[in-house]
Amino acid sequence: MNNKKIIWIIFGAILLAGIYFIYPTLSSSDKTLLFKDIVSGYNMNEKVAIGAPFKFTLNKDGLKAQDSVIVFVDGIRYGKLETQYEYEIPTSDLNLGYHKVNVSAHKKEKNKTIELVFYVVSDLTPQGLTHAIVKTLNRDTEAYTQGLELHDHVLYESGGQLGQSLIRKVDMNTAKVIKKISLPGDYFGEGLTIFKDKVYQLTWQNGVCLIYDLDLNLLDKVNFKSTNGEGWGICHDEKSLIISDGTHRLSFVNPETFEIEKTISVYAGDREVSLLNELEYVDGFIYANIYTTDQIVKIDGTTGKVVAVANFNNLDKANPKADVFNGIAWDASTQNFIVTGKNWGKLYFVKL
């Protein structure tokens, strides 16, 4: 037997072995039904403004021989195909973000289920917000500001960077540090909020939330979850802790169990808004710094729609080594926001 023949025999054996091992892993439906046999009209990853229907068309000729065809929306049975082939899925009651329709065709013991992905997006065009600087305070540039919150006329601030992370209390009238606690060297401090007289400070990638009393005595360390495991910003709506993780999603977390109760996706028109960082909750809206920008977005805390955007590119960092804009606190007594940035030398009191 010559070498060429041996090579062809070996090649054929490998090919047959591949078919033998791969083919049984395919469902019987994959062997008999094709995608085009089920759907004849559909836009992959279509963006649909909330309130408008998501439309798709089933292949009448391809499906008429099937025993049954069932349509599911986000895992919930929507209907069984009788004579309808044009579908319009209402979106008014759907959350913003990712959704899927499953179409399952059955014939005897064989079946084929295909997935149609679409995204529900905001129907609003965000408005521009202007701001007026009411007051400025000079401050030290030690803090790589990650979280900022006002409570009983005292500013609580969280700072980041490994080996430099901290939490501190600051006099809101003078910007002088009242008390400072350094975090362990392996913790990267992130967002901060105060809920029921407890101070919650996130860490970035440690998955740990540090809980203090109002005098910054450590009470507990609790593991928390987010959509990607990271912690960026945190606020609350008097019921749930709300955590950002750098994505376009916000997690609503039970303050007792730290389990995620729900998530919402944030959209400005048809665009996901990611890099959501420091958060502040005011009157049903979540205000969020967009990391690396001079923008704060105003988000509907129920739907995730961005309703307005404010630009703060006129602020002076007052420190040549300062980093990006970050930090939002709300002063309910004056209806002003207090904003700053990472290692900035100034605090700004602004009215939107």
Structural account:
The protein is mainly beta. It is built from three helices and 31 strands. The protein folds into two domains: 94 residues, Sandwich (Immunoglobulin-like), CATH 2.60.40; 225 residues, 6 Propeller (Neuraminidase). The strands form eight sheets. Strands 2-8-7-4-5 form a five-stranded mixed beta sheet. Strands 9-28-27-26-25 form a five-stranded mixed beta sheet, with no helix packed on it. Strands 10-31-30-29 form a four-stranded antiparallel beta sheet, with no helix packed on it. Strand 13 and strand 14 form a beta hairpin. The longest helix has 20 residues.
In short:
By secondary structure, this protein is mostly beta strands. Helices cover 8% and strands 50% of the residues.
The CATH superfamily of the largest domain is TolB, C-terminal domain
Radius of gyration over C-alpha positions, nearest whole angstrom: 27 Å
Shape: elongated
Distance between the termini: 87 Å
Count the E strands.
31
The DSSP helix count reads: 3
Can you tell me the CATH topology of the largest domain?
Neuraminidase
Major sheet description: 5 strands, mixed
Averaged pLDDT, please? 87
Number of domains: 2
CATH architecture of the largest domain: 6 Propeller
The parts where pLDDT drops under 50 for at least 5 residues are: 1-34
Which SSEs are present, and which pair or pack?
Blueprint: H1 3-22, H2 28-32, E1 39-41, E2 46-49, E3 54-58, H3 60-63, E4 68-73, E5 76-80, E6 86-89, E7 97-107, E8 110-121, E9 127-129, E10 132-138, E11 145-151, E12 154-159, E13 166-171, E14 177-182, E15 189-195, E16 198-203, E17 208-212, E18 218-223, E19 234-236, E20 241-244, E21 249-253, E22 260-265, E23 267-268, E24 271-272, E25 276-282, E26 285-290, E27 295-300, E28 306-311, E29 325-331, E30 336-341, E31 346-351
Parallel strand pairs: 2-8, 9-28
Antiparallel strand pairs: 1-3, 3-6, 4-5, 4-7, 7-8, 10-31, 11-12, 12-13, 13-14, 15-16, 16-17, 17-18, 19-20, 20-21, 21-22, 23-24, 25-26, 26-27, 27-28, 29-30, 30-31
